[in-house]
Design a protein that fits this description.
With about 240 residues, this protein is an alpha+beta fold. The chain is built from five helices and seven strands. Strands 2-4-5-7-6 form a five-stranded mixed beta sheet, with helices on one face. Strands 1-3 form a two-stranded antiparallel ribbon. The radius of gyration is 21 Å and the shape is globular. It starts with a helix and ends in a 10-residue tail after the last strand. The structure holds adenosine-5'-triphosphate and magnesium ion (MG). Adenosine-5'-triphosphate (ATP) binds next to helix 4 and helix 5.
Length: about 240
């Protein structure tokens, strides 16, 4: 067995173990959550000072339990193997969908969305749902980097056998010494980030035989470039 095979077997075992552990934690967490909800309902009708104080505590615990449940769900989504369903798609249309979804929040944060789509882009064999998820992760990062406002530019173009999606923001950028870390599982500089966004994007893009690269300047902004061959030989992950 080659070293690479051994390493991937090892990480496969770890994935299975970790997913099992997550499932074990999820069940008691669910019980805690249900009981906290019952306590919440009981305490809501108690108008005494102590009752109100206890209700506050219960609500705080509920918030933390929700957060833990979210972290576990994100992890399971990341670790789960899935079968890809390749279908001929219009990538511009997929991006439009994602942008429609984030536009209300972008407006709230004074983010201007600029589109520069190649109208002659060839159709591409993709799993549109997972590609949507990947694009959403990159676009959400861009949005989160511009909480004080800015510009989000999304461009598509073709070069040779590949289509390119360029997502550029004018946000806070990534420091040079951190740029190698952004695809690492659990690397996050955000208070509530899980650090699974970009590792998921990278995995999805690679499952489509593509690549993702980044250029960034601290204080100026970041550009993520996704390249995907449009005549893909569909490659499914084993389930
Ligand atoms: N457009 C961007 N501008 C600035 N920093 C970025 C950008 N995209 C990613 N980063 C940096 O890379 C880190 C990892 O991103 P990633 O999407 O994996 O995790 P996250 O956004 O922190 O959490 P989540 O799991 O919720 O996506 C971010 O915490 C941030 O420091
Ligand atoms: Mg993210």
């Amino acid at each position: 067995m080659t070293k690479n095979n051994e390493e991937s077997d090892k990480s496969e075992d770890l994935n299975i173990l970790a997913a099992g552990l997550v499932h074990e934690i999820r069940n008691p967490l669910h019980t805690i959550s249900v009981n906290l909800q019952l306590l919440n309902e009981d305490l809501r009708i108690d108008s005494s000072k102590t009752g109100k104080k206890m209700l506050n505590r219960v609500q705080l615990l509920q918030k933390e339990v929700f957060r833990l449940q979210d972290i576990l769900s994100d992890f399971l989504r990341f670790a789960k193997k899935h079968e890809l369903n390749f279908v001929e798609c219009d990538i511009n249309e997929i991006i439009e969908n994602v942008l429609d979804f984030i536009t209300p929040e972008a407006i709230q944060h004074s983010i201007r969305i600029l589109k520069n789509f190649d109208a002659n882009l060839p159709k591409c064999n993709l799993d549109s749902n997972v590609i949507k998820q990947a694009l959403l992760n990159v676009i959400l990062n861009a949005q989160q980097a511009m909480s004080e406002g800015g510009e989000l530019m999304v461009r598509t173009f073709q070069n040779g056998e590949n289509i390119y999606i360029d997502i550029t923001d004018t946000g806070y950028g990534i420091p040079l010494d951190k740029i190698d870390k952004i695809y690492q599982v659990y690397y996050s500089t955000k208070k509530t980030g899980t650090g699974l966004g970009l590792p998921t994007v990278k995995r999805i893009v690679e499952e489509h035989k593509g690549t993702i690269s980044v250029h960034s300047k601290e204080g100026k902004g970041s550009s993520f470039l996704i390249k995907i061959p449009f005549q893909l030989e569909p490659k499914s992950r084993e389930s």
